[in-house]
Design goal:
By secondary structure, the chain is an alpha+beta fold. It is built from eleven helices and twelve strands. It has a five-stranded antiparallel beta sheet with strand order 2-1-5-4-3, with helices on both faces.
Amino acid sequence: MSRPAGREARRLTRWWRRRSLRTRLTVIAATAIAVSVFAAFQVASELLDWELRDTTENQLRADSRVLATNAQRAGLAQVQLPPYPGSGRLVRVILPDGSTRTPAGQPALPPVSEHAGRVAQGASADLMESNDSEEGYLIYTLRAGDGAVQVARVADDSPINRFGFGMLLIGLFCVAGGALVGRTVARTGLAPIDRLTAAAVRVAHTRDLDADIPDEGGGEIRRLIQSINDMLAALRNSRRAQQLLAEDAAHELKTPLTSLRLNVELLIRLDRRGTLDSALPAESRTRLLNDLGAQVAELSTLSAELTDLARGDVSDENTELLDLADVVVAAATRARSRVPDIEVALEVTSVWVSGRPAALQRAVLNLIDNAGKWSPADQPVQVRLRAEGASAVLEVDDAGPGIDAADVPRVFDRFYRADSARALPGSGLGLSIVQRVVDAHGGRATVARSARGGALLRVDLPAAAPPDPIARLTAGEDTAVR
């Protein structure tokens, strides 16, 4: 295809894509009907032409047999040839010497063809041939006596022409009717989509996600409406979650920010007056600076947890096959480095899971941090990991006061803090992040009372088949207690 032709094709494609669906359906319906009518016309014309030709040939054969019988009875030279009536068949007698006889007043026929001459000489019994002259004769030659007789008719295309004209009119009517019907069907069939579009535009303009689109129609239309309503419901939930997150974040940030601002303003005011050293002895100044550091650290932790929570399940981290025991040990090491006073007692065995290492480590770290806040200084946080059926079971318990029964249903809620935990550092997001990570891995997080009287937080994750024995040996897997 040349470049101009290619550009024309692309231009036509772009034009077609810019047309509305109604226009496309109308054009397609009209085109389909036009093609059908054309195909029907071609087939019907061929059938009609074949039928007319067959009828004409049969008539020529019948007339030739009558003329040949008369010629054999009276002789070719003496057989009577009635004058030409002005229309209808044409006849001719071919004498043995090659000369011809025709009725008086009859138009001249084309010269006797070579094949017809051989019939007159006895080479064959008969011959049906078409003449390519301007008149277009159909000539039948039949052997008679020592010569032959010929009967001819002018090939008449008028029935075909009349039929074609009639089919053209019918075709135009059908195309116009098809376009109208296609337009009507398209308008009726697309009416639900028009209403759906109007509803979607209304939602986009008003930003009212609470207005569900009425369910109507059937089949694909109903599924489309249901899908859009599901999308609106997801958007509503997302917006509510964002509003809740913003409100909760503003509430949780208010207290540490207010305390931090008051302490900083106090230091600035005393410094401007030049009474910082006299108004704040070294011990008070150290305590104030420590408070400022703790508040900044609390804000940093809260900001990180808010960011992690706002991301939801979106993560660039790939899922991989890993030994959960390695994740637990790494999380315990991080917990000890962050809070040197915390004591963690590990009792873990190798259990393989399919998950995101960083997310799982963050969840385990939050569990250990939460338990560390409640455990007495002389009581370690106990972390146990084992395989139980088709699950990897992680338990973290402390020797603290435990969780009240009224608080158990809300332990994993965002920003929820029991009354007994109000004086302790934290944002109330740690266990919510644990819940989200566990849910994303198809697991379950529960809370109960431990044997030591404190809280027992349990996480069940689907276990995975371990890698082949060589890889397991390389990874140092064993069933011993670490």
